[in-house]
Amino acid sequence: MPTIRDIAPPIDVFPYPMWMVATVCGVALLLVLLVIWLAVRAMRNRPTPPPPTPQQIALAQLEEARGRIEELAPYEFSILVSDILRSYITQRYSLRATQQTSPEFLASLSRSSHFTHGEKTLLGAFLEKCDLIKFARIDATRDDSAELLEQAIRFVKGAAISEPATATAGGAA
Fold first, then answer.
1. How many domains does the chain have?
2. Which domain holds residue 126?
3. For 151-160, how does the pLDDT look when each residue is reduced to its tens digit (9 = 90+)?
4. Which regions of the chain are under pLDDT 70?
């Protein structure tokens, strides 16, 4: 009897020719490189966002100051809010608000055409109240600080006031 040979193990036969595999890999690599190149190019050509405007900067600083209204004494808070508003006016209108006293600044403001009568009135009341708190050391409260903050925000947002605001802090002159 002839001997029966055992079954041969399976032979791996790759279904595609090697040139086809190399071509597909090359095309896939080229597509990946093309996508990476396009992504890098798009990121480089993306316009940079414009820098924040003086109004945006001032509003952000005033909102940050709102969070500190409870921790700062009215004296320190009035200095903080006044500095923010004066810096905003200096940056936005190129006026020397940070280098002048309140009376000097208000005098130069009266000659300026940048502001409406209501804005000048609001700014005058704001500066007078700040000066009363800073220099006359009147007894101010957190409510006075909140009022200063709201006046500064209204001014920065451009809300014109037709009625003059009270210039006294805490009812004292």
1. 1
2. 54-157
3. 999 999 884 3
4. 159-173
